[in-house]
Amino acid sequence: MNNIVFVNIMRFFGLLLLQVLICSNINLMGYINPNIYLLFILLYPASNNRLLFIFCSFLIGVIIDAFLDSGGTHAAASVLIAYIRPLFLKFSFRAAYDYQSIKFSNTNFAQRYIYFLSLILIHHFVLFSLIVFDQNKMLLIIKQTFYSSGFTFLLCLLIYSLFSRKEA
Amino acid sequence: MQQLFNYFIKNKTFVLFSLLFTIAITLTVKSHEFHRTKLFNSSNYVVGSVYELSNSISQYFHLAEENKLLLEENSKLKSKLFNQPKYSPVDSILEEPYNLNPAVVYNNSYSLTDNYITLNKGLRDGFKEDYGVITSKGIVGIIDKISSKYCRVLSILNSNSNINVKLKKTNHFGTLSWDSKSAGIVQLNDIQDLVKLTVGDSIITSGFSSIFPANIPVGTINSYRLNDTKDLYIIDVKLFNDMTSLKHVYIIKNTDLNELENLNQSDE
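YS: structure for the whole thing
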């Protein structure tokens, strides 16, 4: 039990620093940056205290906002996906979720991809809608959502497969 | 009352979610209004120190480039010095009201719609909000948030940035803003369609505000078109500065700023 808490605390700070010091300065093709801190929210244990989980998601979002001077955009998007996450867990890992026994390392690829991709897409759409904050620039929002989500998704899978052996 | 409490306890997840979501949205809305965000920005002490640490490592990678820039600027200044007239009259009227102070860029963004730059100078170095920031090549932005050790600069690559500039050749002035598309191109608005424009003309600061002195280079005309009402030009200005690789900048301190502010306040 303590091990899980420790892993999550390390993940919180590790991903936070990685995000603000490296990933937000990549600027692929001028503007595409991956938001890998989402891994913290995606991989948080499924059987959890939801209040604490939502609050942690808010915290990581708000700290990243402070670093990137983006108001409360990351915080809003993070809180939203933290709140709707059970819905997607149920949708992606049907049987396992019903028995409250999800271990991400035990799930198969397709399920995991759907779960990652759907939450990442929602997160980025909310994020860029709030960053651009102009309904006349819908095309810009969709374009940025699409590219950044792809990049984030790719990096998340890479990082996840790099470190996944240790957990479980 | 009991029922109300019960309701909250039953839906505590949703209540917490709505609370945090509202806070986040409020922060977002406030950040879109100019000069409002107080708590969560990069002039904050903790954030500033992390950027300071990161910069102390990454600055080594840019040393060669920075040396070249300094050398270029030195040679320019030296040539100015050698060609100065021999006698200049001593008079307090001719004292220069602007001081330039070097600062180091800790964090620079240029790919968002609202970009900010964090510098290593703050209140304790004698700087205040609304001081201008330039490089040897052109303008960078205006300080909009300041703590004791760090400050945040509202970059010209920000949708809230409005800076008064003019055409070097004809002295027609307008407002410089950014359409958040390309990090090298900003827009100059409010130039009348009577003015004759040529691609490649220089744009410089107008000196109407107390923030920037006149004649600081900004960029050249890249292309121009008429706006929707067909009476004003929208000019795409190619910046002299490369906003994507800022390392050393200068903060402009206007020694007459207090006097000017007092003068303007006495009107009201």
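YS: worth flagging: Helices of chain B lie at 2-10, 12-32, 45-58, 63-82, 257-267.
IM: good catch. Also Chain B has a mean pLDDT of 82.
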